[in-house]
Amino acid sequence: MATKTSRNPLRAVAILAATAALAACSNPAPQEGRIGFSSSAITLWNSHGEADLLRVGESLSVSTLLPGQLAGNAKYQVRIAVAGGTELVLADLLTTHDGRLPLATILHDAGEFDGVRAGSTLDVTLTDPDGAVHRQSVMVSSSRTPRQGAGWDVDEAQPPHVFAADASGAPQNAFAVGAATLAPGEVGGEIFAAGDGFPPGAVVDLYVARDADVWVGKAMPRPGDPAYIAGPVTATVDADGRLAPTRTGFVPAVGHVGIYDVLVDVDRNGVFDWSFNVKDGADGEQKVGLTVQLSQSWLAERTSKHILVNLAYDSAGRDEGVWRNAYTPGEPVYMYVNPPVMTRYHASAKKWVVRHQDWDTFWNSPAADANVGGAAGFGRRPIADLAISELKYKPQNGCTNSPPLVTFNAEPGDYDMVIDFDGDGFYDIGRDLLDVFSGDAEGGLVDPAHVSQLPAAQRVGFSVR
After folding, report:
1. Alpha carbons 334 and 138: distance in angstroms, whole number
2. What is the radius of gyration, based on Cα positions, of the chain?
3. What is the structure's pLDDT at 263?
4. In sequence order, what are the residues at sequence separation of 6 or more whose Cβ sits closer than 8 angstroms to the Cβ of residue 197?
5. What's this model's pTM, rounded to 2 decimal places?
6. Does residue 438 carry a pLDDT above 90?
7. Mean confidence (pLDDT) of the chain
8. Percent residues over pLDDT 90 in the chain
9. Euclidean distance between CA atoms 189 and 161, whole angstroms
10. CA pair distance 326, 418, nearest whole angstrom
11. How confident is the model at residue 357 (pLDDT cuts 50, 70, 90)?
């Protein structure tokens, strides 16, 4: 099964931070006709595909438009900072073999969690393997800006800034379910919607829907639609264009674990509009609006000491692939997960592909010689020496569900995957995530007791044949 691709840059969301196999990360010889860093090699896009424009609440992506603009199969470091101030992003991006950078989301929800404000300038730098730097900047705006015409000024409609929130109106990316008492930092209960930048005094319709990459031009989900969750909820905007925290009616439970978007229909015509005169709003265009995740208490009661989840994914797009465990040589393998719990997974992590290890004698062994520096019985497993490819990933602004991360171009063999949240080169049992199971195509949690009963052939993260 070949990896699905898309020629539409809005559908080609690829990676936040990734490296290839170690051999592929070396800087290749200069390519014939390659455009150097003195040219405009990168293009910045907002969530709606507009170049060099970013509004409060939108996400920022980067890409190249033509082959050969960058070195092939090379790791580039991307850094975003408020001009003269706070660093927001420091991550790695991987080019394709022909020197292109697929559209990559590098900053989520600008202005919601990071101190960015309307009027801020964000400096974006892309550094190649030899240290050469390409710079570009983008200004953040939430105000209506007139377009100059021939003798008149025309105000283009700007989209409202809408976001999932708690009852106080604080933006939230994740809601926990499955426990009567939530851990510190976890947020539960009904999902509210809030925002600003609306037409003053407007009456609007709100919806909650299952996540999609693109809403522009689509009908708002209605009861009976596969994407429908809640709405339309009628809400009135105040005289300053602000939407106070508004109940959506969606109180998630364990069966709702997954990813969702919040939509606002400004003109209430039932369609997500994006024209010069009318623009609707979404917490979720080209990004995940919010996640519903299992509470830490729920997880601790049901997963023993290991947190097992299927990670091997076959596409760069969230909507375009499945968790798959069998690949052919040369196929790209991706790593994708909706973290099963909240606060402790809002952190930097290293993502490892390692040579496959036996479940009984290594990953799940209680023997002292299999446990390095951890607690008695179970604790830690060294993985750095087993690594095929090391991937360093830094979630942006607390967003826990990113586009799938490219892992490496598959070579024959059996492999396991580890998400190492403290980046120490060890699999810490009960804290890090492990993929050593080939029987689940849903990407959900796996009971370690079930894995222990499977034949050895199914106790593998993924195989390449």
Report:
1. 30
2. 23
3. 97
4. 55, 56, 142, 158, 159, 160, 161, 241, 281
5. 0.79
6. no
7. 80
8. 33
9. 23
10. 18
11. very high
CA 142-143-144 angle, 5° bins? 130
**Ramachandran assignment for 189, one of left (phi > 0), alpha (psi -120 to 50 degrees), beta (any other):** left
pLDDT confidence tier of residue 204, bands split at 50, 70 and 90: very high
Report the chain's terminal Cα–Cα distance, integer Å: 12
3-state secondary structure of 184: coil
Task: Provide the pLDDT confidence category of residue 401 given band limits of 50, 70 and 90.
Answer: low
* Residues with Cβ within 8 Å of residue 152, at least 6 apart in sequence: none
Contacts of 389 (CB under 8 A, 6+ apart): 19, 20, 21, 22, 352, 353, 407, 408
- Asked if the model's pLDDT at residue 138 lies above 60, the reply is yes
Sequence-separated (6 or more) residues with CB below 8 Å from residue 47:
58, 59, 61, 282, 285, 286, 287
Q: What average pLDDT does this structure show over 401-420? A: 78
Query: Which residues are 261's β-sheet partners?
Result: 209
Q: Which amino acid is at 108?
A: H
3-state secondary structure of 344: helix
Q: How far apart are CA 447 and CA 449, in angstroms?
A: 5
Pairing of strands 281-283, 258-265: antiparallel
Token pair 């983008």: residue: 138
Contacts of 109 (CB under 8 A, 6+ apart): 57, 58, 59, 163, 171, 173, 283, 287, 396, 397, 399
Beta bridge partners of 72: none
Residue 158: both structure tokens together: 């700007």
- The predicted structure's pLDDT at residue 355: 94
Compute the distance between CA of residue 428 and CA of residue 382 in angstroms, rounded to an integer: 9
CB-based contact 167:175 (threshold 8 Å): no
290, 294, 417 from 13: Cα distances, Å: 18, 26, 22
Sign of CA dihedral 343, 346, 350, 351: positive
Backbone CA torsion sign across 40, 44, 48, 53: negative
- Record the tokens describing residue 447, joined without a space: 């009971």
pLDDT grade, residue 332 (50/70/90)?
confident
Is 371 a residue whose pLDDT tops 80? no
Residue 180 has pLDDT above 60, yes or no: yes
- The token duo for 44 is 């910045």
